[in-house]
């Protein structure tokens, strides 16, 4: 599912506060994927 689709669905469900939280979570997840192994 594309980011735009998810954000559109959040708008449909009136979950506007979830948009910034979603972006923050995805940014953290992407950073963790590219971290060097411990």
Please, could you describe this protein's structure?
- With 38 residues, the chain is an all-alpha fold.
- It has one domain (3-32).
- 74% of the residues lie in helices and 0% in strands.
- The chain contains two helices and no strands.
- It has helices at residues 3-12, 16-33.
- It is elongated, with a radius of gyration of 13 Å.
Mean pLDDT: 88
Q: Helical proportion?
A: over 70%
Instruction: Please report which band the strand proportion falls in: under 5%, 5-15%, 15-25%, 25-35%, 35-45% or over 45%.
Output: under 5%
Shape estimate: elongated
Radius of gyration: 13 Å
Number of strands: 0
End-to-end separation in angstroms reads 31 Å
Secondary-structure element series? HH
**Class based on secondary structure composition and strand pairing:** mainly alpha
Number of helices: 2
What key attributes describe this structure?
mainly alpha; 38 residues; elongated; 2 helices; single chain
How are the SSEs placed, and which strands pair?
Elements: H1 3-12, H2 16-33
Task: Put the structure in a nutshell.
The protein has one domain. It contains two helices and no strands.
